[in-house]
Design goal:
With 254 residues, this protein is an alpha/beta fold. 30% of the residues lie in helices and 25% in strands. The strands form two sheets. It has an eight-stranded mixed sheet. Strands 8-7-6-9-11-10 form a six-stranded mixed sheet, with helices on one face.
Length: 254
């Protein structure tokens, strides 16, 4: 099988635990591009929150917001949003949930969050918003932090255009359009560039990576990933802190 594209998750995959990318990984990805292999970042982060890392590796394509937005260096290939009406209704319900802690919403105009000071400088662009007034914008994704998941599946079921995906730390939940998945975004990219997904290798560690790990030509799970990802992967590479992605690429593709 000839691999022409590599799809990389960021957090827990090519990012170390301290949110850095090693020089070794950057060098390996550079060698891939020199061989004509397309580098694709596929992250749950917004395009802005991923910017520091995408600048470091210069991918050919960026899939952001978990699949809601796909961009090449020259084109917007695909975008998919929750309607303003649905987004405002979901936000209203989430803020009234038992165990509610915080919520954020990513739109074309900006990133709005209930917290005033971000935990990371990657989110320093966030605009404080208490959501007591409807946002009234189409939304790429809503991310809710809650100490309990009780009632979330009912919210998802209530809005037919919406899909909810948890993050593995158990406190964060993403609500977005049901078509806004990493795999659907990969399919849109493959169609745009006229490439076969059988010639794509995907790396990931979390729930939102399961479908692309399963359906791309080769799926590689991180050793530090959740069991659900490792169970369906073709390969398990070393952990993110041990540069597992770069080591696998160097062994099998370079």
């Amino acid at each position: 099988m000839k691999i022409n594209s590599i799809v990389l998750d960021l957090d827990g995959t090519i990012l170390h635990g301290d949110k850095t990318i090693s020089d070794y990984t950057r060098l390996v990805l550079k060698k891939c591009k020199e061989k004509g292999i397309r580098i694709v970042v596929a992250t749950a982060r917004s395009e802005k929150a991923a910017e520091k890392y995408t600048k470091a590796i210069c991918p050919d394509t960026i899939i952001s917001n978990g699949g809601s937005l796909v961009k090449s260096k020259e084109n917007t290939i695909f975008e998919c949003k929750l309607s303003a009406k649905t987004a405002d209704a979901i936000i209203n319900e989430l803020t009234r949930q038992t165990g509610f802690i915080s919520i954020s919403a990513e739109t074309e105009k900006g990133y709005y969050a209930t917290w005033k000071k971000p935990d990371s400088e990657d989110y320093s662009h966030a605009v404080h918003y208490d959501f007591s007034i409807p946002l009234s914008q189409d939304v790429y994704k809503i991310t809710a932090e809650l100490s309990s998941s009780k009632g979330l599946s009912q919210i998802e079921a209530k809005y037919s255009e919406c899909k909810m995906i948890p993050f593995s730390d158990g406190m964060w939940y993403r609500f977005a359009h049901k078509s806004a998945t990493k795999m659907n975004a990969i399919n849109k990219m493959a169609e745009f560039y006229d490439i076969d997904r059988e010639n794509i290798v995907a790396f990931g560690d979390d729930y939102n990576d399961i479908e692309m790990i399963c359906k791309c030509g080769i799926g590689v799970a991180m050793k530090n990933g959740i069991d659900e990802v490792k169970e369906i992967a073709d390969y398990i590479c070393e952990s993110n802190d041990n540069d597992g992605v770069a080591k696998w690429i160097e062994r099998f593709l370079l």
